[in-house]
Design brief:
The complex is a heterodimer.
Chain A: H1 3-11, H2 20-68, H3 74-93, H4 95-100
Chain B: H1 4-14, H2 17-38, H3 43-59, H4 70-88, H5 109-119, H6 125-136, H7 141-148, H8 152-177
The chains are: A mainly alpha, B mainly alpha.
């Protein structure tokens, strides 16, 4: 037997490892990580909405009304852009959820 | 029976964890065996790294381009994860080789694997990676270079050095037996 053949027979994988426990443990970890990601995404979304709402409230009473009376209608353009942008961001964030039901 | 591509597509597009389970079932043995060789028989560490490897694979599955085999991609993740572990963790790889030369020929598959893992203690981690991928798994030199990102010449050098070291063991074993 040549050295290379001997090495090949020595180093080849001799057994197929059975992995029921390994797979079970791994899939549990993946599920936990996935759920954690969902929680983080949800909490961040809620925080974003809260802070956005608070921010909006601070400018709402005075500037909203004043902006409406601008002569060039720029407020309405800004308002449209803001609504479309928020819609796009929400769609992007929750795209996976819509697709996976 | 689904192909790798079908299972990967199901995980990425539909988010089906069960499809990833299919990939794990198919590849867990090979990845764990590979890591057992890299860790020179530290089964617990090898399985810990293997778990990390599959979690990383799940998270980065959309980055798998499909240009090489999925098996090769997993080996790449495993090798990089192993290197990271030995760079950051305690050095467990300086223990002297404890191979019993008389037992180089065994018919028991478990003993044979333990023997092969013990032999790895004689090699540096890079040499273990190269010789295992080449001799145990049948990857070509260029495939190993692509998988690991190590230059082709360096891969050849690792394999040559590893074979040289292991051949000395084989020869000394033959002398003992004779």
């Amino acid at each position: 037997m040549t050295n290379d053949t001997m090495l090949k027979s020595l180093l080849t994988y001799h057994q197929q490892l059975i992995g029921d426990d390994f797979i079970h443990q791994l899939m549990n970890k993946i599920d936990t990580a996935y759920k954690r990601r969902q929680w983080i995404l949800g909490i961040c979304s809620i925080l974003g909405i809260i802070f956005g709402y608070v921010g909006l409230q601070t400018i709402w009473p005075q500037q909203w009304l004043l902006l409406q009376y601008l002569p060039d209608n720029s407020f309405y353009i800004l308002e449209t852009i803001a609504i479309v942008s928020v819609g796009c961001v929400l769609t992007w964030v929750f795209k996976d959820e819509f697709e996976h039901g | 029976m689904h192909t790798d591509s079908e299972l990967i597509a199901k995980v990425i597009v539909k988010g089906e964890h069960q499809a990833f389970n299919g990939l794990v079932v198919k590849y867990q043995s090979g990845v764990r065996q590979f890591l057992r060789r890299l860790t020179a028989g530290d089964h617990a560490l090898a399985d810990d790294i293997a778990q990390d490897v599959f979690i990383i694979a799940f998270q980065k599955l959309s980055q798998f381009k499909g240009t090489g085999s999925f098996s090769g991609w997993l080996r790449k993740l495993a090798y990089h994860r192993f290197i990271r572990v030995i760079q950051t963790g305690a050095n467990k790889y300086e223990s002297p080789c404890d191979v019993s030369w008389q037992s180089l020929q065994t018919s028991d598959s478990i003993e044979a694997d333990i023997l092969a893992e013990s032999l790895m203690k004689m090699l540096e981690p890079d040499e273990r990676m190269a010789i295992t991928l080449n001799v145990s798994e049948g990857f070509s030199h260029s495939e190993i270079s692509n998988i690991t990102g190590v230059p082709l010449g360096t891969v050849k050098s690792f394999i040559a050095r590893a074979k040289d070291k292991l051949n000395k063991v084989v020869q000394s074993n033959e002398q003992v037996v004779a």
